[in-house]
Amino acid sequence: MSDTHTVVLVEGASDKSAIEALAERRGRNLAAEGISLVAMGGATNIGTYIGRFGPPGRNLRLAGLCDVGEEGAFRRGLERAGLGSNLSRSELEALGFFACVADLEDELIRALGTAMVERVVDAEGELSSFRTLQKQPAWRGSTTHEQLRRFMGSGSGRKIRYSGPLVAALDLDRVPRPLDMLLAHLLGSRRW
Fold it and tell me: Is residue 1 part of a domain?
């Protein structure tokens, strides 16, 4: 991290993997550009990482990606570090922090559509496992979107395993807003 000027704080490894995959698809090497991605192991760890990399620590430029349900933890961490008070969502975005509606998997499923996500699941050899989940009484009445979100969140390492293939399947004109805005913020352009 000696050449790092920007640290992107994300909740978990799947978020980190998706951002790396999207940057690569767009021909960018974040590490070579001085941008480090840090998976914090959950949003509640934001204060520790802001303390380490932000104004109280190394005073590096910060950015981040979180689930909308964890936006409050990010807001409080940024406010405690002196980066604003009573931050609105637009103020968080101006600081480089973007929220996914439910989570990143939800954003990717909406951007791709359920049929494409099912094709990705099939290509990964897990379509029969997904069909089994769909038949379970707890999930039978749910939408395919909800079932796919549950499927991505179940099973050890499945979110990480699917983040790259889902990003690879994206039409680059349909990148979920939080991902697109984060990358644009990092590299100083609207879309790249």
Answer: no
Structural domain total, the chain: 2
- For residue 97, list its beta bridge partners: 64
Same domain, 114 and 36: no
Q: Are residues 39 and 121 in the same domain?
A: no
**DSSP states along 49-77:** HHHHHSTTTT--EEEEEEEGGGHHHHHHH
Give the list of residues 6+ apart from residue 2 with CB closer than 8 angstroms, or none. none
Q: Measure the CA–CA gap between 70 and 47, rounded to whole angstroms.
A: 13
Is 81 in the same domain as 124? no
- Statement to judge: residues 124 and 95 lie in one domain: no
Other CB atoms within 10 A of residue 115 CB:
8
The pLDDT profile of the chain, 192 residues, written as one tens digit per residue, is 668 899 999 999 999 999 999 999 999 999 999 999 999 999 999 999 999 999 989 999 999 999 999 999 999 999 999 999 999 999 999 999 999 999 999 999 999 999 999 999 999 999 999 999 999 999 999 999 999 999 999 878 899 999 999 999 999 999 999 999 999 999 874 443
| Domain assignment present for 20 | yes
Structural domain harbouring 133? 105-166
